[in-house]
């Protein structure tokens, strides 16, 4: 049995395109509908209450496209609003926290794991909770890195300032002698090189997007909803705004040009 | 005649508190109602279309508080949506672009003026247009500084990374031998010291918020709507979200504690 319905992916903005990239490398025949809430990005500093309201809007946009599965690419939403998405959706929902935590536990030898993310993700302690559930012996240490998102969007991957900022953010974690670091925000894989450099290549970096693509592949099989077609997959991109420099930034995150980008409005507000 | 109705001030988020600070220093007896759209901040990278929709929402929130005058503290809104606010409001409206441009023209000797701001503000060329209208002989040079907003919010005013970033942003402007620099974003006054340092104290820095407070004072008199009471003024703060670290960041921008912060919802959406 083959299911050609698209996988739905949503994020607060452009960052989730790193997850789309991982998905389409792992699952090249799956159609994907992406929604980025670029009119209200970023979610990272915002309160859980507002993030939950926005997550519901985002879910409804994807459901309108008859998706067979929803990937919550946004770490902040996965951390504080996965239940909102699961309650609303009539299809399987995969967040990025559990897959990221699982990959980290599998790869860490010292069982000392670091987590970086937005203020919202770190405050929620969602990764810490997931890690402890997977292995009670794991010790975890976390640090929010709010400047990493604008640095990745500005494209300053090799700038001396980025290196200084990365050092400042990561120093407290390396002091805890971690051997594995979860990149708990979709923007951070863009900064992999500088993160490796300032930590002297001593850390295994866990890209939650890649880990999530693995979990999605397994789920498609277990649910019997894989697309068995060998046709080229169709990728569609929807956003709530087409902000300045969107195509340029999107290309950096997706690893290729996006093609047509369609702007959509939310069907209802929460008042 | 005395008019005790409050002055309404709105901004995309917390940055407009630097304008409130300037207003309440200049006009200590005026009541002020502030609204920050913290649920959708920042506006700077977003498209003019979305900024105009949001500006209308923000205006309506202030009008519900019976304000006698509206100050558009947000440079991005002042640059691309002042007409939207003016059309909606039944009261005088003051943006920050005209006052900032006027102050720069008055103070520049060489008539070579630099402008920094968000991508939206710089792309609009609103400051350039205003400068040329005030003095056709002025030459202006501009540069967007998207990392300044998150650096100011992170509180890294004295960090070496901030200095490097400021150097990179400001170098092309100093090459043009400007003598005056317009700080075209409410966040930038927080970074005045580092901006002065990396430009070797050679530039006159124009804080549009301070310039706007001057214009507001004149307008209150010319319209006969000054509050003649000598009672302590009442400052009220409304936001669309109470994000992480809001009180801490707000205090840095306002120069004192904010007290009670009330969350409000928008009355309608734009669908």
Characterise this structure:
2 copies of one chain form a homodimer. With 271 residues, chain A is of the alpha/beta class. Chain A has 2 domains: 7-96 and 210-263, Rossmann fold (3-Layer(aba) Sandwich), CATH 3.40.50; 97-208, Rossmann fold, CATH 3.40.50.1860. Helices cover 44% and strands 17% of the residues of chain A. The first copy, chain A, contains 12 helices and 10 strands. Chain A has helices spanning 17-26, 48-63, 75-80, 82-88, 97-107, 119-124, 126-134, 148-154, 160-175, 192-198, 208-223, 246-254, and strands at residues 7-11, 32-36, 69-72, 93-95, 112-117, 139-144, 180-184, 204-207, 235-239, 261-263. Chain A has a 6-stranded parallel β-sheet with strand order 4-3-1-2-9-10, sandwiched between helices. In chain A, helix 10 (192-198) links the parallel strand 7 and strand 8. In chain A, helix 1 packs across helix 11 and helix 5 packs across helix 7. Chain A binds chain B through residues 38-40, 45-47, 49-50, 119-120, 123, 146-147, 149-151, 153-154, 156, 159-162, 164-165, 168, 240-245, 265-271, and chain B through 38-40, 45-47, 49-50, 119-120, 123, 146-147, 149-151, 153-154, 156, 159-162, 164-165, 168, 240-245, 265-271.
Silhouette of chain A: globular
Q: What's the CATH topology label of the largest domain in chain A?
A: Rossmann fold
Number of continuous helical runs of chain A: 12
Mean pLDDT of chain A, to the nearest integer, reads 95
**DSSP strand tally of chain A:** 10
Distance between the termini of chain A: 43 Å
Residue share in helix of chain A: 40-55%
Q: Any low-confidence stretches of chain A, pLDDT <50, length ≥5?
A: none
Radius of gyration of chain A: 18 Å
Largest sheet of chain A: 6 strands, parallel
By CATH, the architecture of the largest domain in chain A is named 3-Layer(aba) Sandwich
